[in-house]
Amino acid sequence: MIKHLRSAADLDAATATLILDTAGEMAALAGREVKKLPTLRGRTVVNLFYEDSTRTRISFEAAAKRLSADVINFSAKGSSVSKGESLKDTALTLQAMGADAVVIRHPASGAPHRLAAWVDGSVVNAGDGTHEHPTQALLDAYTMRSRLGRLDGLRVAIVGDVLHSRVARSNVLLLTTLGAEITLVGPPTLIPVDIAAALSPKTKVSYDLDSVLPDMDVVMMLRVQTERMQDSYFPSAREYSRRYGLDLARMRKLPEHAIVMHPGPMNRGMEITPEVADSSRSTIVEQVANGVSARMAVLYLLLGGKA
Ligand code: NCD
């Protein structure tokens, strides 16, 4: 087993499949009255969050607690980070406390890689800048596999603000490793020219959502990340929705069995309409539930558990 999960590229097909299978076993636990396993009793998991988060932070906390680990939640606001303490000094503090795993979300791409050099425990990337978010990709892959039965040969469209999306990057890496065929869709300004080739040579790019939908098994909508945009990448929110938003009329172009995904948080009315987000094809709430199982599997396996 690998020691750290910094990038979806850390996972080969066998390791990724082992994590998804283990997540399946963890999910079975969620249906029980007592949702706890003693596996990580006495181990310490630190959640180190330098960026806002709802789902991911709660999900990692729930995952570690269901495995009976001691959980320390650290958020940059209200800590010595606001006094200017560096990531390295914070890391040394965690090291002194004997953290067995550090889950880190950070606005700087590459922060988890630096951290891994400073602590003895396992490092899990919970989102670093616009770079990667590997556990999101794992929970997405898990959701696709449980809804559609397979990943190999699955046709997946990832739609919208690819440029700023760590979710897109990690998904392309993981899903291609597992045999899915990816098409990135969005306005040219939000799809870097060389991104598809750099991530995986087989990845396709399209600027026309309507023409892509009839061939897809999965359509994954991305949030338009205005907080990361310094320039204007499209004329207006209305224009963006008209071309790249998923509404009911567009959703009907998908094959009958296809599912609609979104990592959250959503801009309802922008990249996805409420009717689509709340429809029976949407797996958005399921993705959140699966996130806990996927993160349990990651913590369990990284900290030395067997399948
Ligand atoms: C994503 C993130 O923070 O990278 N959300 C998440 O983790 N569920 C996507 C986003 O912010 O749009």
From TrEMBL:
Where is L-aspartate bound in this sequence? Answer: 83, 166, 223
- What positions does the entry give for carbamoyl phosphate binding? 55-56, 105, 133, 136, 264-265
User: Aspartate/ornithine carbamoyltransferase carbamoyl-P binding domain: from which residue to which, for each copy?
Assistant: 3-145
Annotated signal sequence is none
Q: Which enzyme class, named as a word?
A: transferase
Give me the reactions it catalyses: carbamoyl phosphate + L-aspartate = N-carbamoyl-L-aspartate + phosphate + H(+)
Against PROSITE patterns, the record matches this protein to:
CARBAMOYLTRANSFERASE
Write out the GO MF terms.
aspartate carbamoyltransferase activity
Instruction: State one Pfam family annotation.
Output: OTCace_N
Q: Which family does it belong to?
A: Belongs to the aspartate/ornithine carbamoyltransferase superfamily. ATCase family.
Q: Which organism is it from?
A: Paractinoplanes ovalisporus
Q: What does this protein do?
A: Catalyzes the condensation of carbamoyl phosphate and aspartate to form carbamoyl aspartate and inorganic phosphate, the committed step in the de novo pyrimidine nucleotide biosynthesis pathway.
Q: How does it assemble?
A: Heterododecamer (2C3:3R2) of six catalytic PyrB chains organized as two trimers (C3), and six regulatory PyrI chains organized as three dimers (R2).
Q: Where are the transmembrane segments?
A: none
Q: What is its EC number?
A: 2.1.3.2
Q: In which pathway does this enzyme or protein participate?
A: Pyrimidine metabolism; UMP biosynthesis via de novo pathway; (S)-dihydroorotate from bicarbonate: step 2/3
Instruction: Give yes or no: UniProt keyword Transferase.
Output: yes
**Which keywords, in A-to-Z order, does the entry hold?**
Pyrimidine biosynthesis, Transferase
Q: Per its record, how is this protein called by name?
A: Aspartate carbamoyltransferase
Domain called Aspartate/ornithine carbamoyltransferase Asp/Orn-binding: residue spans: 152-302
